[in-house]
Design goal:
- A hairpin with a 7-residue loop joins strand 8 and strand 9.
- The radius of gyration is 27 Å and the shape is elongated.
- The protein is built from nine helices and ten strands.
- By secondary structure, it is α/β, with parallel strands linked by helices.
- It folds into three domains: about 60 residues, Methane Monooxygenase Hydroxylase, Chain G, domain 1, CATH 1.20.58; about 120 residues, P-loop containing nucleotide triphosphate hydrolases (Rossmann fold, 3-Layer(aba) Sandwich); about 70 residues, Ubiquitin-like (UB roll) (Roll), CATH 3.10.20.
């Protein structure tokens, strides 16, 4: 019995022939398979579609591997954390990078101005934060020539700031990041004045100032991972601090100002620690 494809299958076949890229062809083939007749006489048709899907997947995977080899990018991390500015075109990424870091990012009204990652350093109460602007994300970004490279940069970051104009763009960004398994914590940019404060609260680090008896607190502060202790701080400063440690006084999170604490005391953001050595 001959196959008798319905209207939806015929429409899917039309889309396949109209497809301009391999990614579009793959999507059309998957849709064709879902709409193809599913009875004994259509087995050859379905097998042919599956074979085309397998070949296209293999081709795209090879292209992806070649792209990764041809566009290696090593992100040189600086500062206490690295934050990626990720979004669709003309959403203010370059403007914000310039405002926060003074970086000379190109800003224009036309789309896709940023052609390569742009990096700048912001100062947050003495702590250096590295910002990197990723060129605008678009649909099927992972399969674009430099998509895998830029997505690999995002994966190395500690936080993402997302930029978009519509809910549809937000969904597209989320899908592209999910497809690339770029599961990095993120916040949404909404012209907020306290963006740096929000970023700091989401980072898994704290800033702590140290002082010696009778002296003012040192500046700049020290950046440490959250849940760090006085022992971690002492080791960070110098091995002799830990070797000769007697006790410390803490201002900030301590119950009493300047309260005496030992090495296991857990530090908090903006603590001031006065070391007393033997």
């Amino acid at each position: 019995m001959p196959t008798n494809p319905d209207y939806e299958y015929s429409n899917a076949l039309k889309k396949y022939h109209e497809a301009q890229t391999d990614v579009e062809k793959l999507q059309a083939l998957k849709f064709m398979l879902s709409k193809a007749p599913n009875h004994k006489s259509s087995q050859t048709l379905r097998a042919d579609i599956k074979n085309k899907i397998a070949k296209l997947k293999s081709k795209l995977e090879k292209q992806k591997k070649q792209t990764k080899k041809g566009h290696q990018f090593i992100l040189k991390k600086e500062g206490a954390a690295t934050i990626a500015l990720v979004g669709t075109t003309n959403t203010g990424k370059s403007t914000l990078l310039k405002q926060l870091t003074g970086a000379k990012a190109e800003i224009n009204s036309y789309e896709y101005t940023t052609k390569k990652p742009e990096i700048g350093i912001a100062d947050y109460y003495g702590i250096k934060l590295q910002f990197i602007e990723i060129p605008s994300i678009f649909e099927n970004f992972e399969h674009s020539p430099k998509g895998p490279t830029y997505l690999s940069i995002i994966k190395q970051c500690d936080l993402i700031v997302l930029f978009f104009k519509t809910p549809q763009e937000k969904n597209m960004l989320s899908q592209e990041l999910d497809n690339a398994e770029a599961h990095v914590s993120h916040i949404i940019y909404n012209n907020q004045k306290d963006l740096l404060d929000q970023i700091w609260k989401r980072l898994l680090i704290i800033k702590v100032r140290t002082k010696m008896p009778g002296k003012d607190p040192d500046y700049p502060p020290v950046a440490l991972p959250k849940d760090s202790t006085i022992k971690d701080l002492a080791e960070h400063i110098h091995k002799d601090f830990l070797k000769n440690f007697k006790f410390a006084r803490v201002w900030g999170s301590s119950k009493f100002l300047g309260q005496m604490q030992g090495l296991n005391y857990q530090l908090h953001d903006d603590d001031i620690v006065e070391f007393h050595l033997k």
